Amino acid sequence: MRERSMLFRGAPFLILLFLPILMMCFSACASAEIDSIAVSVTPPAVGQAPYYSASADGADYEIYISSAGGYRDGVYWYDSTSGTRDFSAFEAGHIYYVQVLVKTSEENAFSPDLKATVNGEEAKIDSNAFPNNADRYTAVRLYFYTLANIDSVTVGGFELPLSGAAPDYDLSAGDEQSRYRIYDYTSGSWKSGVSWYDVTEKRVLGEDETFTGGHSYQISIVLKAEDGNLFANDGTAPTVAAQLVSDTRTDSVSVYNPFPNTAGGYARFAGLKKTYAASCRISFVSNGGSEIPECFAAPGKMTFPPDPEKEGLRFQGWYTDAALTEAFPSGASVRADTVFYAAWGGKLEIYAFDLTSSDIYRGGTFTVNGGEEKDWEELSFAEGDILALEAKPLDGYSFAGWKDSASDAYLSTETSFAYTVTREHTLYCVFEKIPERLAGDADGNGETDALDALLVLRMCSGQTVEPDMQNADVNADETVDERDAMLILQYDSGWDVTLK
């Protein structure tokens, strides 16, 4: 009993002796093992001063505020490229690492297999960075490659939209340093980073389609900065200036950000955008005139080539329909593929002509298409025009015919003539005076004598002569023969005969 009593009496001492150990055991059992931590720090930006602020994403740990050994508020920046921690601003192309001190709360400890991220990227854990009770303190380290700003872009090697041509998807981008490239984005309406959009029809142009003259098309190009670069930005959007170079021109283009990949204000992706109107295909039908080759014209005021030529006719302008009913006004614009048709015509002068006296403006008048009677008229005509001509002889004149001045041949001897105009020339409406009748005056010299009887006898004997038959038929039997010649001789000799 005594021994047992002694042991019992010593129990409090043993409890006191092992109390710290028990407390440590209970304490260890109560502490949290932190196996991952996340730290956020502003990444380096070219030209900016180092950022000495960070946050630790967790309730069980925090940034350890230390300003010793190059640390400032628990953050340490080091330029690995130049080997210094004393710099006032980040430089393009330099490699930097940031080291952030992290401290656990009193009741917690970092686990041996602790993992860490800085700005979402896996970071190195450096427990020796602050070797004071390493289970309470650690440092996370991440390397940054400082991105170089791209403030200008040139994309080239494409053709402007041309009616009937296929879209160009094979473009080139990048300067001699190759700091950026066309991003090979092929889903949806894109092909190798290029998209064409028909603004006129409000739809994406398919790869197998061709441009339509006069339609507006928007080309969009996605660019990606190569590693180590970014597009100059104001923190949210690119401010880069860009040029889009075709085979014939260089245009400034708008820059936008087609993808929301701008974490931390960095523009790694940018897009170019430009709208063009497709050139119109212009064709010419010369309708028998000199040939004019097909060409292309930008939508807008139409500039025509030199006029075609056609023998015997004048060029009278371009029409937009084969029937030549829709004239194309001077200075008008083209907005789509267009076929132009040439109209031909000229001037036609018509004169009344007196064949008897070789005078014009005598012998009669004429009308054109039922209009006013005239003895001269100048008409403008189109090739193929049909004119309704009507001759109107004056009293004492007869109509001889419609004579072509160029060939000196009669085209018609009818007073009513439907004339199809095919060339520019002069047309005569020919009249001749009806001579007054003198009985017996067979030779038409204004006298009745033996020579007239001789002319009739020569005709009767078969000689080739042409007496005035009306004057020669003096006995009015409607036949010119020897009896008429005898009466003419008797009349010339003074006989008492009557010539009818």
What would your notes on this structure say?
The chain has 500 residues and is mostly beta strands. The chain has helices at 2-30, 450-460, 469-472, 482-493; strands at 32-41, 54-56, 61-63, 75-79, 95-104, 108-118, 121-122, 124-125, 137-145, 148-150, 152-158, 172-173, 180-182, 194-198, 203-204, 216-225, 229-231, 241-246, 250-256, 269-277, 280-285, 295-297, 300-301, 314-319, 333-334, 338-354, 359-360, 364-368, 376-382, 386-393, 397-404, 409-412, 416-420, 425-433. Helix content is 11%, strand content 39%. The strands form seven sheets. Strands 11, 12, 13, 14, 15, 16, 18, 19 and 20 form a nine-stranded mixed β-sheet that branches. Strands 21, 22, 24, 26, 27, 29, 31, 32 and 34 form a nine-stranded mixed β-sheet that branches. Helix 2 packs antiparallel against helix 4 (482-493).
Which properties best describe this structure?
500 residues; mainly beta; nine-stranded mixed beta sheet; 4 helices; disordered N terminus
Question: Could you outline the blueprint of secondary structure elements for this entry?
Answer:
Layout: H1 2-30, E1 32-41, E2 54-56, E3 61-63, E4 75-79, E5 95-104, E6 108-118, E7 121-122, E8 124-125, E9 137-145, E10 148-150, E11 152-158, E12 172-173, E13 180-182, E14 194-198, E15 203-204, E16 216-225, E17 229-231, E18 241-246, E19 250-256, E20 269-277, E21 280-285, E22 295-297, E23 300-301, E24 314-319, E25 333-334, E26 338-354, E27 359-360, E28 364-368, E29 376-382, E30 386-393, E31 397-404, E32 409-412, E33 416-420, E34 425-433, H2 450-460, H3 469-472, H4 482-493
Parallel strand pairs: 1-6, 10-17, 11-18, 21-26, 26-34
Antiparallel strand pairs: 1-2, 3-5, 4-5, 5-9, 6-7, 8-9, 11-12, 13-16, 14-15, 14-16, 16-20, 18-19, 19-20, 21-22, 23-25, 24-26, 26-27, 26-29, 28-30, 30-33, 31-32, 31-34
Helix pairs in contact: 2-4
